[in-house]
Amino acid sequence: MRIGFFDSGIGGMTVLQQALRILPNEDYIYYADTLHVPYGEKQKEEVREYIFNAVDFMANQGIKALVIACNTATSIVVDDLRKKYNFPILGIEPAVKPAIQSCEGKQIKVLVLATNLTLREEKFHNLVKSIDHHDIVESIPLPGLVQLAESLEFREEKVVPYLKEKLSSFDLKQYGSIVLGCTHFPYFENSIKKIFTEDVNIISGSIGTAKNLKRILEARNQINDGTGDILFFNSSCKVENKETLSNYKKLLVMLDR
């Protein structure tokens, strides 16, 4: 049986790439809801419907576990998904806790970069409230990065000006840790580094999610000896177009550098 990965678009490949590193012999299904991307600027109930439709489709493929490789989807629906399905469902959330820990005892702050919907959700606010005891966490939505990623536009000359414009009101020297609170954002890590000081710590939740996936499969004795094969679906349509498949594989290679 395969492991399912779900995202609104290509962002979840940043999590899949981490899974491929530590579970290289598993086989995977990657579902990108390309008909409805981006999620972060839509209404919550609309997005919930898209997610349940996608997970229904993946469940019918016979997956043994599902990774919701999307911060927005995790924040609004992961608990309800777990009530409906009997296979393990893992989510991903902004890695605020390790970011705060890396800044403890220092006169520096944490900045969370995410989508509007993730930052509006009660799940995110409760997370910050439970661990940000010194009021050092700030946040900003950067929906343009999702749009750039989905357009396969990663050039720094396009990304850096957008970041400078959106962050122009921030004193960037104040921040010691930057949390990539959207799975699309690791594609732009090099551009983000150019905006902040050299010693800034950039953190995402991808590695932790992949490690947790391995622990769960080991505990259930479900580690497979597969080939690392990946089936790609765009909104329940199997991807067979050679150019699209080539682009998806290039993205995984790009992340592995």
From TrEMBL:
Residue positions of the active site: 70, 182
Family: Belongs to the aspartate/glutamate racemases family.
Record's function text: Provides the (R)-glutamate required for cell wall biosynthesis.
Family annotation (NCBIfam families): glut_race (TIGR00067)
Listed name of the protein: Glutamate racemase
Gene Ontology MF annotations: glutamate racemase activity; identical protein binding
Domain of life: Bacteria
Chain residues that bind substrate: 7-8, 39-40, 71-72, 183-184
Pathway the protein contributes to: Cell wall biogenesis; peptidoglycan biosynthesis
A biological process term (GO) from this entry: cell wall organization
Reaction equation(s) it catalyzes: L-glutamate = D-glutamate
Keyword Isomerase carried by entry: yes
InterPro entries for this protein: Asp/Glu/hydantoin_racemase, Asp/Glu_race, Asp/Glu_racemase_AS_1, Glu_race
Keyword line: Cell shape, Cell wall biogenesis/degradation, Isomerase, Peptidoglycan synthesis
Enzyme Commission number, as recorded: 5.1.1.3
